[in-house]
Each structure stands twice: as C-alpha cells, then as structure tokens.
Design brief:
Blueprint: H1 4-15, H2 39-49, H3 55-63, E1 74-75, H4 91-99, E2 110-117, E3 120-125, E4 133-136, E5 140-142, H5 147-162
Antiparallel strand pairs: 1-2, 2-3, 3-4, 4-5
Length: 164
C-alpha cells in the first residue's frame, strides 16, 4: 500500500530547503521553487501527451510545485514550469520532441521526467501498470522500480542528509 499523501508531504518539506530540493550535486539556477501547477496546466499537459499522468506526479505538481525538485537535477515542469537544462523545454514539449525524432524513435507513453545531468533523463513508463522508471544511459534501461518507490528512496536519502 502506498501513501501518496505522506510521500508528497515529505517531498514538499524537502523542496522548501534549497540544499535538499535535488541531489544533482550542482548549484541549480532555481532560486525559488516553481509554484504548484494549476489543474488546468495538468489537463493541458495530459491533452498534449494523450494520456493521464500517474497520480503521484499529479499530486507533486499540484501540491509541491511545477518541477525543479526531486532526483537528479529535478522533475521537469509542465507549461511555465521547470525546463530541461539543455533544450529549455518543459515535459509536454520534450516528450513531443523525442517522439518526433525519426532517427531515435522514442517509445509512446514514456515520459522524460527527471533531468539527471549530462543530457541523461530518467523517465516513467506510462504504458505499464506500475509506471516503472526507465533510465536513459547508452540506451533505455528499464529499472522495474515504480515511481513511488523511487521517490520514496530519494526522499529518505535527502532526509538523511538533513539529519544532524
């Protein structure tokens, strides 16, 4: 049983502390967190994507912020949210860009979500029931880790950094 509300509350608390907002290891240009996304931004993103976001992501966008927090350099935002470091695109635009690249076909319903640095992005496979994380590292490598467990592990590691 997953406790999405509890995990989102922990992520929100971590997002309020700049040194714990991400674990990217670099000072990011995000000074303030992006404000939470409005339901209309989520509906727009889902319309562009052609499918619904997993509930954990929806709650993070609605309650924590429009990206810029989480594993690596942070979760990509929706419209007017935290953009990809290299392209400047937010989640729906980056997904469309990847899907339209005929030289490197991108799987349908694979969300490029977390900027990990050096052009690498961890994604969520929305075509699978448990939405496993897929790591882009010399090809796409499924991890079989659901995003709840992945974010739970990240939050626990960041909380340990915070402990005296």
């Amino acid at each position: 049983m997953t406790d999405i509300d509890g995990l989102v509350a922990r992520i929100l608390a971590l997002s309020r502390e700049p040194s714990l907002r991400t674990d990217g290891g670099l000072q990011l240009p995000v000074i303030e967190t992006y404000p939470p996304a409005k339901p209309e931004a989520i509906a727009s993103a889902e319309s562009i994507l052609g499918f619904e976001l997993p509930e954990l992501l929806r709650q993070c966008y609605l309650r924590v912020g429009n990206g810029g927090f989480g594993p690596g350099h942070g979760m990509l935002g929706l419209q007017d949210g935290y953009p990809d470091d290299l392209s400047g695109a937010c989640l729906p635009e980056l997904y469309q860009y990847y899907r339209e690249d005929s030289d490197n076909p991108w799987p349908e319903r694979l969300l490029p979500l977390f900027v990990m640095g050096c052009g690498l992005i961890d994604s969520i496979d929305c075509s699978a029931a448990d939405f496993p994380v897929v790591r882009m590292d010399n090809g796409l490598k499924p991890t079989e880790i659901p995003p709840y467990d992945w974010m739970e592990q990240w939050a626990t590691n960041m909380e340990r950094k915070q402990a005296p």
